[in-house]
Write the structure tokens for this entry.
Amino acid sequence: MFMPDKLLATEVDIFTLQEQYRDLLRQSENERLARSFQTRTSAQRLHRKATNWLGATLVRLGCFLAAPESVPACRLQPAV
């Protein structure tokens, strides 16, 4: 059975679809921003861990090369 009145969209239908589209755009933008923040945070965490490891390794190397009594920081380091 053919019902032509069901094929035409009303102004309310069009307005509703436009609002749904805007909501989807806002939601996707928020998700994109959240993903970019998580990526940045993860990269910063990796950078911080690598920097901490490098610093501790350099201090241990310096203590190994220097006499333990000559550098106060070396007396605080555990024996390796």
